[in-house]
Write a structure and sequence with these properties.
mainly alpha, Arc Repressor Mutant, subunit A, 9 helices, Tetracycline Repressor, domain 2, 2 domains, elongated
Length: 195
């Protein structure tokens, strides 16, 4: 017999897992209700539609990244390189273990459901801003913006390639290139100091 009540967070967690595994279009309200121990009709007491639930899931995932990943960029107790390393290691674990909800849902639904695209865009804007903040400590503002966009795009591509080919070398290579960028700036700074 299904449970009568579950928390919103439980529904969001189960939904996030199913959307990551099966995609938005291949996950039904019945699938989500069953995973939560609810009857299908009961889920509508929490969310009026599958679209409303997906919007809440995207915001839930964004909040996780905001608190657990993006906040690292602003931790002044760490060096810029340490912040970037920590941020991308956490991102890697989150995206590879369960799937990339933002990238997958963004590609799958961008044209059909523009509301999702807005939420996903907000996520990427915040991610780029966090990376840019760190880069600003080692280079000028214009270069920091370009490097941040390049880094996030490259990392997203590496996650996709890693999943398609089931080979972590793509993530490792992207991460190594990121560290090399930092090393190049550090060497340039040392040369300027000694001259």
């Amino acid at each position: 017999m299904p449970k009568q009540k579950v928390s919103i967070e439980d529904i969001l967690k189960h939904s996030l897992k199913l959307f990551r595994q099966k995609s938005y279009h291949n996950t039904s309200i019945a699938d989500i209700a069953a995973a939560c121990g609810l009857l299908k009709g009961s889920l509508y007491h929490y969310f009026p539609s599958k679209e409303a639930l997906m919007s809440a899931v995207i915001k839930y995932a964004h909040e996780y990244f905001k608190k657990e990943v993006f906040s690292i960029a602003y931790d002044s107790a760490l060096t810029p390189q340490q912040r970037m390393e920590k941020m991308f290691k956490k991102t890697e674990r989150a995206l590879l273990s369960d799937g990339n909800i933002m990238g997958n849902i963004g590609v799958e639904t961008a044209r059909a459901i523009p509301e999702f695209a807005e939420h996903i865009r907000d996520f990427y804007i915040e991610w780029i801003a966090a990376v840019e903040f760190v880069f600003k400590e080692i280079t000028n503002e214009a270069d920091a913006k370009k490097l941040a966009e390049q880094t996030v795009a490259e990392f997203e591509g590496a996650v996709m390639m890693t999943r398609i080919f089931k080979d972590t070398k793509y993530i490792k290579n992207a991460y190594e290139r990121l560290l090399n960028r930092f090393a190049a700036f550090t060497l340039a700074d040392l040369k300027n100091i000694t001259n």
